[in-house]
């Protein structure tokens, strides 16, 4: 027994050190286990977050049909201090659901560097002799395909224009610089720019350029009585809503191709919507209500008012002047 006690006493320091090591290890074990548990938990969460390959596409929201914004030259490039004048704040709609195409009924033989001067002249005529508060068109495009900002308020916003009597709300007006009556060549650069601009502007509200839009007339001087709902091509010529030859027969003939080009720029497939011509039904053909018309003029919903007489582009009749704004200067209706 004495030998055993002596051995134990002789080994006591080693045993003590081993005991302390065990106690230290035991104290550290919960922390080590916590780190290991945390790593395993994180790995499990990572696996849970990663979706199954077949479910990834279904979980994503549908992509809107938007087109790239084309280069747009700001107003400051054509409106100088001597020409510009004070005007009321811009007015806005909730969105743009249709585009009206115009021509400016001005000479075609200009150099593209002269476009700012031509736009400035148009602005001076509309705000001077006619007393409008700003240029009526939202955008203007020259023969080289350069796009200019027209009416003030922001190119990416739904600015209420003064370009289509009765249909200025929820629409944008694009004017082609020149006169494009029957037989006049229409530059390809111009129509490509118009298509790109329409694709971008309509794409902001995911509107197909080949579709049709329901618009409500705000003036009996248009083709439709005030308060009448009209269903028109999304991308229309001015003559679709007003008794005029604008945008000219040559440019109007390019509308179907412009619509298709704009739709492709939005990433849409070919012709999911039948391109509309904007023409009223022919004699004896049924309208949307099922009733035939005698003369081919729009019936019921599309009945034109009796007072709207044809006029040259940019020359409204006396009754067609815009309503006065808060500043006393006429504005769009």
Automatic annotation (TrEMBL):
Q: Where in this protein does the record put region Disordered?
A: 266-333
Q: Where is the composition biased (Low complexity)?
A: 285-299
The entry lists its GO molecular-function terms as: N-acetylmuramoyl-L-alanine amidase activity; zinc ion binding
Q: Report the SUPFAM superfamilies cross-referenced here.
A: N-acetylmuramoyl-L-alanine amidase-like
Mention one GO biological process in which this protein takes part, according to its record. Answer: peptidoglycan catabolic process
**Domain (N-acetylmuramoyl-L-alanine amidase) ranges:** 85-248
* Domain of life, source organism: Bacteria
Which family, according to UniProt?
A: Belongs to the N-acetylmuramoyl-L-alanine amidase 2 family.
Name of the molecule in the record: N-acetylmuramoyl-L-alanine amidase
């Amino acid at each position: 027994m004495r030998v055993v006690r002596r051995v134990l006493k002789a080994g006591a320091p080693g045993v003590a050190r081993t005991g302390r090591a065990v106690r230290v290890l035991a104290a550290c074990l919960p922390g080590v286990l916590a780190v290991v548990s945390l790593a395993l938990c994180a790995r499990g969460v990572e696996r849970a977050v990663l979706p199954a390959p077949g479910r990834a596409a279904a979980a994503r929201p549908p992509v809107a049909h938007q087109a790239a914004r084309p280069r747009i030259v700001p107003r400051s490039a054509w409106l100088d201090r001597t020409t510009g004048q004070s005007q009321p704040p811009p007015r806005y709609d909730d969105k743009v659901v249709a585009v009206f195409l115009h021509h400016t009924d001005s000479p075609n033989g200009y150099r593209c560097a002269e476009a700012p001067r031509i736009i400035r002249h148009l602005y001076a005529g509309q705000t001077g002799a006619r007393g409008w508060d700003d240029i009526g068109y939202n955008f203007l495009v020259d023969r080289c395909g350069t796009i200019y900002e027209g009416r003030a308020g922001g190119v990416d916003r739904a600015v209420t224009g003064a370009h289509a009597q009765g249909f200025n709300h929820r629409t944008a007006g694009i004017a082609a610089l020149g006169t494009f009556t029957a037989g006049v060549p229409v530059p390809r650069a111009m129509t490509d720019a118009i298509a790109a601009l329409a694709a971008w502007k309509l794409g902001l509200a995911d509107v197909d350029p080949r579709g049709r839009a329901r618009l409500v007339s705000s003036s009996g001087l248009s083709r439709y009585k005030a308060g009448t709902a009209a269903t028109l091509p999304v991308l229309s010529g001015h003559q679709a809503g007003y008794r005029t030859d604008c945008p000219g027969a040559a440019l109007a003939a390019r509308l179907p191709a412009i619509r298709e080009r704009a739709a492709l720029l939005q990433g849409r497939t070919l012709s999911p919507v039948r391109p509309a011509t904007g023409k009223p039904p022919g004699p004896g053909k049924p309208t949307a209500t099922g009733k035939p018309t005698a003369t081919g003029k729009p019936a019921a919903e599309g009945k034109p008012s009796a007072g709207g007489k044809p006029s040259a582009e940019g020359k409204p009749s006396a009754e067609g002047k815009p309503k006065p704004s808060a500043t006393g200067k006429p504005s769009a209706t």
